[in-house]
Design goal:
Elements (H helix, E strand, L loop, with lengths): L2 H9 L4 E3 L2 H4 L4 E6 L7 E6 L6 E2 L5 E2 L1 E7 L5 H18 L8 E3 L12 E5 L11 E2 L9 E10 L1 H10 L4
Parallel strand pairs: 6-10
Antiparallel strand pairs: 1-2, 2-3, 3-6, 4-5, 7-8, 8-10, 9-10
């Protein structure tokens, strides 16, 4: 099994792919899935970021793919833009996304929903077997790949995290 097969085993059939020139230069594309992780959800993920090692603040190296899911079908273009930006940021900085962190929501994206930030999480609505992928060396994949899921959150949730910590 390779990473694409891993995605399809957990997300279903790929319903769209986008090749953005700036990401293509790094052999990365964006994939779309309908009804994943549940009915009426739209999920977009990077594919190819796993070939670019990223580093946590403590120096540990990891291989990640970024993904985001929303129920709002009319938000598809914002979803794609967010995954594009998250992927590009990881490529440019070489920094890994750390679980429990949150990033400010970029201006103009998902604005009609009043989200304040994107929370970094493990893809907890998917089956547990999706959360860590053991790479296939025959396909040139790293030993381990972690899909990182970004969850849009409100200002009240940001305040809660700041007051009590992400563990709560």
């Amino acid at each position: 099994m390779n990473y694409i097969e891993h995605l399809e085993a957990h997300c279903g059939e790929i319903t769209g792919h986008l090749e953005i020139e700036e990401l293509q230069d790094h052999a990365i594309q964006l994939l779309q899935f309908q009804n994943a992780p549940f009915a009426n959800a739209n999920t977009v993920t990077s594919l190819g970021l796993l070939h670019h090692p990223l580093q946590f603040e403590n120096g540990a190296v990891v291989h990640q793919e970024v993904m985001l899911s929303v129920m709002q079908q009319e938000a598809e273009s914002d979803l794609i833009e967010l995954i594009y930006r998250l992927t590009l940021e990881a490529l440019k900085t070489g920094h890994a996304y750390d679980l429990g962190d949150y990033l400010p929501m970029p201006d103009g994206l998902l604005s009609k929903y009043d989200f304040a930030a994107l929370y970094v999480a493990t893809p907890f609505y998917f089956e547990e077997s999706f959360q860590v992928y053991k790479g296939n060396a025959a396909f040139g994949e790293p030993e381990t790949v972690l899909p990182v899921w970004f969850v849009p959150i409100y200002a009240s949730e940001v305040a809660y995290i700041e007051q009590y910590g992400a563990e709560k």
